[in-house]
């Protein structure tokens, strides 16, 4: 009972604002993006994924800042398709002209099947 009573007044983790999480919370997305980029580099994404789509390498903060949502969405979907294929599942990479809802639906469906 005591533990439950203490939790009643607490907010859920996702409901906290940046000020309630601490001063570094606003920069957490940049740290996550740098970690993601390091992992992609270990998987040789520049040679295997980017050359296929004739794209340039990601910057350290590519997904952390909303600069060009259409381009960022396509890059995300192309990387997701490449990672799914790398995991051993055949997955056709998206085209820029594909319907975004259909593309993300295919990606999510494939990930659920894992």
List the helices and strands and how they pair.
Blueprint: H1 2-8, H2 18-21, H3 28-42, H4 45-53, H5 69-86, H6 100-113
Radius of gyration: 18 Å
Please report the number of helical segments. Answer: 6
Distance between the termini: 39 Å
Principal-axes geometry comes out as globular
Would you report the number of β strands? 0
Could you walk me through the main structural features you see in this protein, from its secondary elements to its overall organization?
InterPro entries: Intra-flagellar_transport_57 (IPR019530). It is found in: Cell projection, Cilium. The protein has 114 residues and is an all-alpha fold. It has one domain. It is 59% helix and 0% strand. Helix 5 runs parallel beside helix 6.
Report a brief summary of the structure:
With 114 residues, the chain is mainly alpha-helical.
